[in-house]
Amino acid sequence: MFLTFEGIEGCGKSTQAKRLVARLTELKIPVIHTIEPGGTGIGQDIRGILLDNSNECLAPLAELFLYAADRAQHMTEVIKPALLNGTWVVSDRFFDATVAYQGYGRNQDISLIKMLNSRACSDITPDKTFLIDCPVEIGLERAFRRNRELKQEGKARFEREKVAFHESVRKGYLTIAADEPDRFVIIDGSLNEEDQEALIFENIRPLIPQGRC
Prior knowledge:
This protein has about 210 residues and is of the alpha/beta class. It has helices spanning about 15-25, 40-50, 60-85, 95-105, 110-120, 135-150, 165-180, 195-205, and strands spanning about 1-5, 30-35, 90, 130-135, 185-190. The radius of gyration is 16 Å and the shape is globular. One of its GO terms (biological process) is dTDP biosynthetic process.
C-alpha cells in the first residue's frame, strides 16, 4: 500500500504522516516513513539545494529537474523495493507536490511535469493521498514558528515566497484533488491533530487486512 500526504507549508501533513506510521506500526503492519525531497542520501543533498535561502537565483526549470532527479532516486532506492517487498510506504509529499508547486506555483508546463513524474515513478501511483488543507495565512504562521523552534530559518526558501505563490499552490492542490476524487481525501487542517488523525484512519481502515484492527 502506497500512501502520500500533501499540502501547503505548515498545513500539518508531516505530523499526520508520522501519526499514521505510528498507528500502523502498533498494528504490526510493515511500514516505512519517507519524505520528498530527501528520502535518500542523494536526495538529502538535493533537498539542501532546494530549501537553502541563499539559492534565490535557482531557475524554475532547474528546480523542476532537481525534484524529478530526487524522485527518480527515491523511487529506485526506497519506494519501489519496499512495495515489491509488501511493505507499506507513507511518504511526506510525492509527485502531486511538483504539479502544485512547480506547475501552479511556478507556472511551469504541467504536461512536462506529468511526463517527468511518469518517467521518474515508473508509472507507480499512490493508492491514497491525504491533502491537509488550510488557509495560507495559518499554514505560513505555523511554518515560520516551526522553523524558529528548530532553528531552520536558513532552510525556508519556499516559506519566504509571496502569499500569492502559496495561494496558487493551494488552489493547485484543490484542483488536482478534484480531478482524482477516488485517490484524494481532503482533510480540514484547521481541526485539532487528534480529529485529523481519526478522519485519516477511518479512510485507511478498509485497506487494512482483516484481523489487524
